[in-house]
């Protein structure tokens, strides 16, 4: 019998996060600081709207691009929060932000085109590029630059085959952000080199140093940028599986074509709940952001005090402490911490080779859980020094 499998997919490595937590799932009494999922319940008024939509029998397909009401509300939200001007026709509602990233790349990139992926970064970018036969150009970012993408770094990675830059800020796993000034320098290069940008802004509402700035809001960038966002992180709606993409007509029409053949439409119940979220959820977002900020400051101080140097993350809900002084790989450190103290964190290498020497720790957990876990981490460190 011939090999039933695609060579492309068999050569792609499974997620480093999931591989590690499959081990953790077999153990009892583990304190997990690894999963990027809010510990808050979806706010009640949002859940209630989803329930009401089911009671009203709204179990039909929506249009391929999503409920018109939701797309209109997203446009109002983007204008209000991030100075982005789009019409409903520029919006496609997707099954989470991950689908939006996938169909964006498939709509924009041909086999052989190069896609620049700044790392450390979200684990889906690389396989999405590989699956379409494009060439991933992995660009390592550095702690000395606060894990920001600099003009010089970007220029060093561009060739005559470069077409798309993935811009992953606020960043998972580092918590790094890009200021307006930082983005202006990147935008200048993008325009000069005639590139396009997929800007993953799923953590845009979790920014702790002033409001998030989207590169699409800068002069000359709207027509070159697809913005990815969603409801999972901001509104604690991970299981509702709802995201969206906004961008120029010429790109969005092709993204919609892929979406309609592969997905048809995003879940209808989730879309009705999302209308309520984006229309009346600002106070919920602010409340959760304040709680994350308190945890962030607590975690960074405690890690620094115990000898795990950690630059201050300004976005998302992760810290990325440096463990190089302990003389172990990230995988070894995380494995021993799990086995000896039953605390689960993610090796930095799950997010790219340049993550070696770092760990990702999520603070999407209660202060009590963080305190217990940090006590165990400090105990573990004491055995190493």
Any idea what the shape is?
Answer: globular
**What structural class is derived from the secondary structure elements?**
alpha/beta
Task: Indicate the low-confidence ranges by residue numbers.
Answer: none
Query: How is the quaternary structure best described?
Result: single chain
Let me know the number of strands: 12
Radius of gyration computed on alpha carbons: 21 Å
Order of helices and strands: HHEHHEHEHEHEHEEEHHHEHEEEH
Number of helices: 13
Largest sheet: 7 strands, mixed
Q: Percent of residues in beta strands?
A: 5-15%
Approximate helicity band: 40-55%
Our measurement of the CA-to-CA distance between the termini, rounded to an integer number of angstroms, reads: 56 Å
With strands numbered from the N-terminus, the spatial order across the biggest sheet is 2-8-7-6-5-3-4
Mean pLDDT, to the nearest integer, reads 95
Give a written overview of the molecule.
Helix 6 (125-131) links the parallel strand 3 and strand 4 (135-140). The relative contact order is 0.17. This protein starts with 6 loop residues before the first helix and ends with a helix. A seven-stranded mixed beta sheet has the order 2-8-7-6-5-3-4, sandwiched between helices. Strands 9-12-11 form a three-stranded antiparallel beta sheet. The protein is globular, with a radius of gyration of 21 Å. Helix 3 runs antiparallel to helix 10 (268-280), helix 4 (68-82) runs parallel beside helix 10 and helix 5 (96-108) packs across helix 9 (249-262). With 385 residues, the protein is α/β, with parallel strands linked by helices. The chain is built from 13 helices and twelve strands. It has helices at residues 7-10, 16-24, 44-55, 68-82, 96-108, 125-131, 151-157, 180-192, 249-262, 268-280, 282-305, 330-341, 367-382, and strands at residues 31-32, 91-94, 114-119, 135-140, 162-167, 196-200, 225-230, 243-246, 318-319, 343-344, 346-347, 359-362. The mean pLDDT is 95.
